[in-house]
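Question (not urgent): is this output format expected?
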Amino acid sequence: MNNQRILAHFHESAETKIQSATVLAPHIAQAIDLMFSALSNGNKILVCGNGGSAADSQHFAAELVGRFERERFPLPAIALTTDTSILTAVANDYSYREIFSKQVQAFGQAGDILLAFSTSGNSGNVVAAIEAALEREMRVVAMTGKGGGAIGKMLTDADVHICVPHDRTARIQEVHLVTIHAICDGIDVALFGGDVNE
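Got this back:
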């Protein structure tokens, strides 16, 4: 493969991250405040997404339950993408659209957070999960791209929309990953203050 093509991926990724940083930083800060407040009040974070976004969901939950960069007590986060028996039973008996919403109905309570990933903003099962979360008086942090799609239109003023200003799925996912790490770091700093190296 031509090295120039490989370099183009790195350059576009770096440029997208730099362009996204200023636009997204205030929204990421809002998400950190919202999540820290929920966790401090004994609530939990439910996380969902499809494909690469399912991996992001599991990555985020693992960082909270395990650790990010410092030793701390486990924080309650559940990826709704991992239980194959629930996913396949609901998809088979009801519809694929309900694989996350049924879990939100089962596990979600008022004051909990739903972290919802959809690069297009139009994933039907993520939309359904957000609908279920809003019905349960949960707050939503949505991570999207491509203008935010249907998800961008359904969020309330109490929710947070982190919409990557790009149309290419790979670039959106790359910014989502940096955002996950920024949120985890922000939660740790809110809990303990200072820097990990202090």
